Amino acid sequence: MASPSWSAPGSLVLILVLRRTAPFVPGSLIAVALGIAVAAAFDLESHGVAVVGDIDTGLPSFGFPDVSLDDLGGLAAGSVGVLLVAFAEGLGAAKNYAVRGHYEVDADRELIGLGAAGLGAGLSSGMVVNGSLSKTAVNWSAGARTQLSGVFVAPLTVITLLFLTGLFEKLPEAVLAAVVIAPVVELVDLASLAALHRVFTRRLGQDYGVAARPDFLAAVAALLGVLVFDTLPGLFIGIGASLLLLLHRSSRPVVSELGQLPGNGHFTALDRHRDSRRIPGVVVLRVEGGIYFANAERIRSTVGKAAGRDGATAVVIDAETVPFIDVSAVRMLDQLAGELKARGVRLLLARDVGQVRDVLSTADAGAELRHVHPTVREAVEAARTGT
């Protein structure tokens, strides 16, 4: 049955206008009351208006769900999907309103709370419990700011279930939809999406190509996934897009060539500091990211090309910005050191950090990799003097 064309937009306009002009007036409550009154006075249900309909009175029964062991396998897959969606939506709502209320959210406590609520719902014939974004928006728009609102809502819910369900049976579904939509309108944050799109520079575009705007692309992928396929598929699409973008970026780490600044002797990227000067005969490179199996060959190719420059007798890799390295990358560097040595070019490492130092010391690396210079300047001096 279709709702009349005026009910949803009319109720929505009423709520939004009252919010703007009289913020202390409960617009949603007035819209619900008017909707019920009009539906009852004009018998809108008989004219094809969809209403909430029969609502069972009384409190739910308590006890274990009527589920056999044979049903558990079929319920498992759906349960995982419900868990992911419920937690993602609940945590998203909590973080969104935590920013507005200037407080912090503990994800672990949120998960424990959802688990306890879900357990209670399962033992009381209830529906899945989660921190609904729409319900949180309704609660916030009504003026709730602390958990004390739940203390008031709980007894009111019990009273409604026992004595007031008949009042809501005539409520048009379109009015109910307007009550939910009105607070959620505020959550449509196009400005944040535009801000994610602006996080871009020409250098990022050159380095990462299509993945230069990972946050924007992941957000758009999740948005379109939810709009086209529904919430759960959209969630997985967003997660998948984020993982693919992360893999793409990590497989193409930035390798900057460094030069030395006159005066203080600091080493900085040549393409960012015009005053930097190359060291004659020594190529200094900085790998900006972890080195592992997915990008090892790309780094090997980049270092090999840099070492082929005319007059180069040594390549120094500044490892300070390398947070981790795996065994396959160590073997690649070992092989590269041997290949460069056969061409008369030394490979030296400088400024390794915790995890990189641990892996290099235990992965049977060659002498060139085990001896890491504490500073780039010392590595360059060792390269120039042959020590």
Structural summary, described in words:
There is one protein chain. The chain is of the alpha/beta class and 387 residues long. Helices cover 58% and strands 7% of the residues. It has helices at 7-21, 27-41, 69-101, 107-123, 133-141, 148-168, 173-185, 190-198, 202-208, 214-229, 231-250, 296-307, 327-342, 354-362, 367-370, 376-385, and strands at residues 254-260, 267-269, 282-288, 314-318, 346-350, 372-373. It is elongated. The model has no long low-confidence stretch (mean pLDDT 84).
The low-pLDDT segments are: none
Number of strands: 6
Largest β-sheet summary: 6 strands, mixed
Residues in β-strands, percent: 5-15%
Order of helices and strands: HHHHHHHHHHHEEEHEHEHHEH
Distance between the termini: 87 Å
Summary tags:
387 residues, six-stranded mixed beta sheet, alpha/beta
In short:
The chain is α/β, with parallel strands linked by helices and 387 residues long.
